[in-house]
Fold these 3 entries.
Entry 1:
Amino acid sequence: MMWMVLLIVQPLLINTGRTQLHRTIGKVSWVLGPLIIVSMFLVGRGSYVRSIGNIPEQENLATMVLDIRGYLTFAIFWALAMFYRKNSASHMRYMIATGMLAIGPGVGRGLISSGMDFPTALTITDVLDLVIVGTLLGFDLYRKKNYKPFLVVFIVFLIGAILWQVKDGDAWQSFARWYAAMFY
């Protein structure tokens, strides 16, 4: 929640000319970002470990894709936002991308509670993310703005969506088995 508060407050500070306060508060993200990454990893690890023996191994390995892509995607966007912190256009786009990661779980739960099955809901949220980022990328291309950040975001989301679709395949299952043995 603190991250979402930062994503709301920080642009308001820039918009009202309080750049120095924006920078001061932004230093919190150097601590909060890594804490979010570690906590997302630990949540995924806990979910995997709790599921051992309760669900089939293939299903447990398949659902790991959600946790792994979640924390890696956040880590990529956060790291790029911090790297480009002195380039406000790129920084802003990568920070927007970290916030977009909250869309999937909320929309997915809404779809599931309305009766949709879990895999279909996840596929729809992936498509929604790609449409939103694709639209932002299109706007940047049309306005001749720096399109590269949203292109990177689109590619990362696309890779995540593809991984969700191949989660039952031999390649993912082998990788997930190795990953679990190595890190869990």
Note: The mean pLDDT is 95.
Entry 2:
Amino acid sequence: MENSDQTQKQFSPMVIIAIVVVLLTVFAWQFFNAEKSTQVIAEKPVQVVKKEVPEPIVKAVEETISEVEPQQEDIQTIAEPVEKNPLPLLNDSDSWMQEKLKTMTWRKELLKLIIDEDMIRRFVVFTDNFAQGQLAYEHSPVVQPQSAFSGIETKEFTKENGKIWRWDEKSSRRFSLYIDLLRSFDSESLVSWYMELKPLIDQAYSELGYEGDDFTETLQAAITRVLDMEIPKQPIEIIRPSVMFHYKDPKIEALDDADKLLLRLGKENLLVLKSVLLEISEKIGRQDAER
């Protein structure tokens, strides 16, 4: 028993040492092979394959769009002008004019003051005569006032003229509705419409013998006559040598019929008329210069 225990005590360390040596040998051999394998792999040439990265899709799309998109000049060529409604014939323009007028004023009840027969020709003939100081009543574009002119009788007498009358301002109020109708139109729209009607207006103007002449010059001359009309500072005195009234002042009586009509409008109406026509004249001048 003692020999056996002694043998075990002596054998056990030897066996352990032997096992450790074997394990170390195995580990060393595996480590050696692993390092050798790593060196072999490292010695192999590494081929770097460079991938071609495709260009961004957005850029490709943008290039495609730029190729397809026309230049600015092409866009202008492609764009078609907006066609305005064609004008009617001059002889057939009355109904068209009547409908158009309804859309341009907020005082539609006053349109009854406008004569709806041969409207463009009436406007052209009356304006042409007015610019020359004459009144073509038979071609007036508006109806005549229902009330007649009246004066205020005074107690003054002169040997030359007899009884003296004074101007009745109430008599001028008969023209107020005509001024209100004119004021109800937007001046910008009215001038634009005039430019639209210009071919028909020029046609009617040429029928009067003004072939090739510009009616706008005649219209501006008529407006200038109104703007240049001086408003008397003193009350106007009138006389009645016959059925018709006359102005007591010879200078006023010598005025053209167109100027006398302006005086009959009265001070307030004439001032409003001057203001409206001045604005219209300036707008016509600007639009005519741009053409």
Note: The longest helix spans residues 2-43.
Entry 3:
Amino acid sequence: MTATAFVGLGVMGFPMAGHLRAAGHEVTVYNRTQAKAEAWIAAHGGRSAPTPAEAAAGTELVMVCVGNDDDVRAVTMGEDGALAGMAAGTVLVDHTTASAEMARELHAAAARQAIGFVDGPVSGGQSGAEQGQLTVMCGGEPAAFERARPVIEAYAKTVTLLGPAGSGQLTKMVNQICIAGVLQGLSEGLDFGRRAGLDLDLVLATISQGAAGSWQMENRGATMARREFDFGFAVDWMRKDLQIVLDEASRIEAVLPLTALVAQFYGRLQRQGHGRWDTSSLIELLAEG
């Protein structure tokens, strides 16, 4: 059993923290909305704290899963932030999809207090979090990673150290670039098939067994064909992630024409009021024609 704190109980953090508790770890939670913390305790036990610093006090590992760079700073820095409550020799893990620069900033702040740091963004979406089957992409020093890995495995199917601080965030950016391209291609293929009068269920069953097959086709193809999007990884989150990608691409002079185009498409869906739809809703823009 490891004494842990989990900061941020959104659609990802709520089940992730629950898996920690189910694995036998001691868990103290913090959430900006206290009602969510109370709901988590009702479901899983454990306890909550009024600030991230108080949640982190006396723990060995602190996990953070919030919205963006500003949210990370708000719950980790300052007198009420998690770092203020952590002791030397403990480890802070940030599961937020944030910028690589945020990871490096947090690593430096933690190091000044002799605290280990791992940036560990995740892939697998809400269903992966609920099933404890996330892919966790990590950056940081090996010693901190090895301290955190056995605990992270409570909600992960793979946990990989990819390099120094920031490497996890950079790998998540590669992940989102690839997903954006696959979803746009799948959207165009399915819309083409619909317009050509094909049986899309039969098409998907056939081509999913060949080189075109992908996780997105297997898990989203049928719902895309039926125009069902009220679930999964939200457009708002993907648009945020792709902006992080494009900002980093500008910094390192990487050329991402398809990613930039898909980011614009997600912006259109947001303006139409569909920010909470699943990312597979890209196909709706093609149906307009």
Note: DSSP finds 14 helices and nine strands in the chain.
